[in-house]
Amino acid sequence: MTGKSSIQSASASVRASIRSMTGYAQLLAAAKQASEGAADVPGFSITLKSVNHRFLDLHFRMPSGADGLEIKLRRLFKEKIARGHIEVTLTIEQSGANGALFNREVVGNYVRAFRAAAEEFGVSGAPDVNAALRMPGAMSGGSGEIGEALEAEILSQVDAAIAKLNTMREQEGAAIAAELRERTARLSAATEQVAAMREQIVGALNERIRSRMSELLKGASVDGDRVLQEAAMMAERSDVQEELARLRSHIQHFLSLLDQGGEVGKKLDFLLQEFNREANTMLSKTSGISGDAIRITELGLLMKSEIEKLREQVQNLE
């Protein structure tokens, strides 16, 4: 049973979805007429917008008097979302019948202050009601507090809103993952082309070293064997075999992380820094090679271009 459960756990890990950090969701909840002895629950809407961010960055736009609700919502979001700048907007339908369309005290204070200033400075004009209604708390209405029944209803619906957001993020993530696989395949193909040219590259390096040594040894009395040993060491240091081996290993690791799924954005980004380092080292080792082996420079630049495009996409992932 233990072996079977571990296999199931591993399978579940492989099936974990990759999410983009970009998404949008909106949930509309209709007003409810409560049963006897309970308060009516007004309608409301929850709007979620998500974009890239290094961490989880939650921004709430809530009616005044919703501080307690915001704390509970923050806890829910942290359980469901790992990364991204999330804007959460809660709008509650207000009823004109109970005077909850605007906060009379806030708007009244604005109007009175406007008229007092106009009288003091001898200017004419009427107060801007639109400006008054945009003031913080102007649209809170009533007591300014969200009742227990409404808070419970909002909390019961927010999971559905987060699920809708994550569904869109997963769809975006699947598209990004497909592009990452395509670009990784191109990078792997370029790596194998360089590997196929390795003997040619080594030969070109040896020829360059031999030619340079011949120039230096003209008319000089030195140990020929010592020169050959130094030349062999220089050629070995210029070999790109280690870089090719590490690139192959990084590519396999990259694909395994995509297969694993889940929260892999940061891991992939760190890994691509290693990709870039190996490509740069390979280019520096092979700079100045002439003849047919110059093709390695073109392949190296192609690899760096693909790595950069991979990084651009990876930074969109959770």
How many domains is the backbone divided into? 2
What is the radius of gyration computed over CA atoms, rounded to a whole number of angstroms?
33 Å
Average of per-residue pLDDT values: 81
Unreliable stretches (pLDDT < 50, length at least 5) are 1-14, 96-100
How many individual helices? 10
Oligomer: single chain
For the biggest β-sheet, the strand order reads 1-2-4-3
Distance between the termini: 34 Å
How much of the sequence lies in strands comes to 5-15%
Helical percentage:
55-70%
* Helix-strand sequence: HEEEHEHHHHHHHH
| Biggest beta-sheet profile | 4 strands, mixed
Find the structural class using helix and strand composition: alpha+beta
Shape: elongated
Tally the beta strands: 4
